[in-house]
Every structure is written in structure tokens, then in C-alpha cells.
Amino acid sequence: MTGFSRTAAILSAMLLGALVPQAHGLSGFIRWLVMAMLFLVFLQIRLSRQALHRHHGLLFAANILVGFAAWGVGWLVGDRDVALAAFFCGITPTAIAAPVIVSFLGGRVEFVVAAFVISNVGIAALLPVLLPVVLGRATPDAFLQVAGSVGTVVFVPMGLAWLVRLLHPAATQWPGRLRNLSFGLWVTAIFLITSNASDFLRRQADTPLQLLVEIAGVSLLVCVTSFALGRLIGGREFAREASQSLGQKNTTFTIYLALAYASPLVALGPTFYVVWHNLWNSWQLHRAGKRTPGPS
Fold first, then answer.
1. Which one, of 196, 153, 158, lies nearest residue 32 by Cα?
2. CATH of domain 3-291
3. pLDDT score of 295
């Protein structure tokens, strides 16, 4: 599949998802699609202490800093809802699918896997302390929510991949042969995520346009800042990996948090972020494909 066809597939999935909000009822399959993709990723990598770098600590600190900086900018741009929408965008940890995108880009997947585990577990541990600062009330179940999500979505496919490699060593060759299948799973997930976001926006049709523009604007600012700051932190050695680790975010989780602890309006922040980071991913895959075309 060439770089152009990858980009066209991602953009088509987003457009179709926007036009078919009824498919949001299938959003429960997103977790299983991501787990299947991670299983293929884990077949060819092993998470070890060698995968940890000082950049991971900087990325984790930046994740928290961006969250509170976005909160402050949100207050300057609009009101409390805009500030909370910006906070939930910035504080979101690394996306479950970030290692998959990095594998498509030819980067070091183990770096992003480590960043994913550190940011998701770390943010989960801090959320009971951080959320009361912006919300004004305690959220003691946040840690268990993220821990359960990480345990199921990451460690189940990781353990299964380890078992399959142990029983059938040749399975390490499967990811290379199934790259197009893995990409197809990712495009399907994008379709379902966008459909879910489209349905959500349609149900908020009475929201003032100015407020929607403010929330969309701050979420775009957070997206650009996160990818750029990640690249700066990664330096020459891990520019691509660090940028993806900080910029591609686990919005499914923060949409849940915003709905559970704030309001549907605040949840529009990470919902818009879904669009922004997938547009950037499609552009990156297009550029990568032009440099090194994949098999047709």
C-alpha cells in the first residue's frame, strides 16, 4: 500500500465516520481492534529496561505541564468549560495506537510502548490529585479506571504475543507480512472513533457556535503544541517517537473522564482532538509513504 493510498484511506474513514454517526453503536469494537493491532506489534518487540530513556521522564512531565498550561489558556480564551476542555486535551496520556502508527512510520516501537505504559499508569496515579484542582471535587476511582484499561488493552495482547512467540518462534515474521491488515484494522478504528464523535456533536447541536469554535481552537492548539514539544524533547535521536508519544493521545479515556466528572460540553475538547491528531497522522503516513513506498 502506497503513502497516497494510506492517506486516502484515513481521510475516507474520517469522512465516512462523520457522515454515518449511526455506526457509533459499534464503538465497543475499537478496544478489540486496537488489541489486535498491539498483538501484531508485540510479536516483533520485547519491552525491556533497555527501552527506557531519560526522554520518558521529560515526556511525562511535559504531559502534565501541557495539561495545566492548556487549562490556563482555556480561561484566557473562554470560560470554565473551555478551560476544562483544554485541560482534558492536554492531560491525556499516550494513545493505545501510538506504537502502531510509529511502526507504520518506521520508528522504534519499543520507545513508544514504554512511553504509553509510563504515561497511562502515571497519569492514572496522579488524576485523583490533579482533577480536584480543576474540578473542585475528589475522583478516587480514576486510578482503577485507567489501570483496568491499561491492564486489558496492553498487557493481554503483550502476554498473548509472548506465548505465541514461545510456542511458534516464526510468528515474529507475521507483522511484516500483515502490515496491510494491521493498517486496515487502524482505518476501521478511525471510522468508528469519528462516527462516535459525529454522533456526539449532533447530540450537542444546541451548543453556541462561538463556544464550539473556542473549544475546537484550544484543542487544535494543544495538538500542535504537543507534537512540536514532543519532537523538541526527543531531539535528533527520538524526534519522531517522542513527538508521537506526546501528540497522539488516548482521547477515548479522557472523553470518558469528561463525561463522568464534568459535562458533555467539556468532552468536546478531546472529541475535536480525535480529528486533529488523525489529520496529522494521515499527513505523516503520506510523507513516509512517499519516501519509502510499501508493497502494493
1. 153
2. 1.20.1530.20
3. 38
